[in-house]
């Protein structure tokens, strides 16, 4: 068995992907953030001595993208000359190289593009898609749209957006809530439910803007609309608050997108303190870490609905045996970041059969998005 692969070159790129229009959730409405206008991507392309190539990326919304890139620039040379098959060892080598800044957040998110590129490489070497390599369970995955339900749009516009994306194949609609006067949110949810009928899956997302008692009161109203979940009703690190709400409300409680390592997710996963796990592979350090999340979710029979990054999460959740959702964001497709597009029909996304993670940067388009490139040999 020949496993004498050696990493010859690592190229990293920082891309700035603009949004067609700025978007606002409850964090903006409550004055904590400005509207989101772009997403920063740190990409890694790893090439081996025999010319095999793996690609991976991590992302950042608002500030922090250049920090992820700066640390990735320190990590990249540590991979030269290494065996790309030793993914676990290399993940730990990178983490330990920067351990004095911690083992979550930027420290692991800067590992993510390399980790994903190494898994991409391994799957391509085996001639398999990443979901087949990890052990596929599903050929298609239910998906819901988020981008039409932000708070800057009046409810009439949200309903139009929802009808459009449902006709394009989405299987559910997420609407942002979390306003100080939660009855305003309840009215928006009621109007959406009325307009879409009883059969459409609806999720609501408060983006951490309530306290437990407000979330309880709002949640009791929301319980009547048969929602798939209530997301981030309270602060992202409030395990006890989420636990109490998941026991008190009929609507399942979702959270996890703001957690920045597998270990930060453990208090939720072990108890469990949520019904729907939304840990996000790029935010917690890539596929090596996300595999552990999938195993914990299996044990507790949770719903797995990772936040954002549909291009990556689609094949990853396809390995899960219980209920899953993928979050549909058109942002990268509008800009044309990747050559490939997701196939969405009748409420489902088709799990790609392409080798590896099945994503290729659209080099022509990327030229205008590129902020920095560094190559290590
Ligand atoms: Mg959310």
UniProtKB/TrEMBL annotation:
Keyword flag Magnesium: yes
CDD domains reported in the protein's UniProt record: MR_like
Cofactor(s) needed: Mg(2+)
Pfam families in alphabetical order: MR_MLE_C, MR_MLE_N
Record keywords, A-Z: Magnesium, Metal-binding
Domain of life: Bacteria
InterPro entries xrefs: Enolase-like_C_sf, Enolase-like_N, Enolase_C-like, Mandel_Rmase/mucon_lact_enz_CS, Mandelate_racemase_C, Mandelate_racemase_N_dom, RHMD-like
MF term (GO), any: hydro-lyase activity
Keyword set includes Metal-binding: yes
Protein name, per record: L-alanine-DL-glutamate epimerase
Organism annotation: Atopostipes suicloacalis DSM 15692
């Amino acid at each position: 068995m020949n496993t004498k692969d050696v990493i010859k070159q690592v190229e990293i790129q920082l891309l700035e992907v603009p949004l067609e229009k700025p978007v606002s959730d409850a964090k903006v409405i409550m004055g904590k953030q400005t509207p989101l206008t772009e997403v920063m991507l740190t990409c890694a392309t790893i090439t081996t001595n025999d010319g095999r190539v793996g690609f991976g990326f991590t992302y950042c919304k608002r500030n922090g993208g250049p920090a992820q890139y700066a640390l990735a620039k320190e990590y990249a040379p540590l991979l030269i000359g290494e065996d790309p098959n030793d993914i676990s060892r290399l993940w730990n080598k990178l983490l330990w190289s920067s351990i004095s800044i911690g083992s979550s957040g930027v420290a692991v998110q800067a590992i993510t593009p390399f980790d994903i590129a190494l898994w991409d490489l391994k799957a391509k070497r085996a001639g398999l898609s990443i979901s087949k390599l990890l052990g596929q369970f599903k050929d298609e995955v239910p998906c819901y749209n988020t981008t039409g339900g932000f708070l800057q749009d009046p409810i009439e516009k949200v309903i139009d957006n929802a009808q459009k994306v449902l006709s394009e194949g989405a299987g559910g609609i997420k609407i942002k809530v979390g306003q100080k006067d939660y009855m305003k949110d309840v009215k928006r949810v009621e109007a959406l439910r009325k307009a879409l009928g009883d059969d459409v899956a609806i999720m609501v997302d408060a983006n951490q803007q309530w306290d437990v008692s407000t979330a309880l009161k709002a949640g009791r109203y929301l319980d009547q609309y048969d929602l798939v979940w209530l997301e981030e009703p309270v602060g992202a690190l409030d395990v006890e608050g989420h636990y109490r709400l998941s026991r008190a409300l009929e609507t399942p409680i979702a959270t996890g997108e703001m957690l920045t390592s597998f270990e930060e997710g453990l208090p939720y996963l072990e108890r469990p303190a949520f019904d729907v796990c939304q840990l996000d592979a790029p935010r917690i350090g890539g596929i090596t870490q996300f595999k552990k999340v999938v195993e914990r979710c299996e044990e507790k029979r949770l719903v797995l609905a990772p936040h954002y990054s549909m291009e990556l999460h689609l094949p990853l959740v396809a390995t899960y045996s219980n209920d899953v959702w993928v979050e549909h964001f058109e942002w990268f497709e509008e800009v044309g970041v990747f050559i490939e597009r997701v196939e969405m029909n009748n409420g489902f996304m088709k799990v790609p059969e392409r080798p590896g993670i099945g994503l290729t940067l659209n080099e022509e388009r990327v030229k205008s998005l590129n902020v920095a490139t560094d190559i290590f040999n």
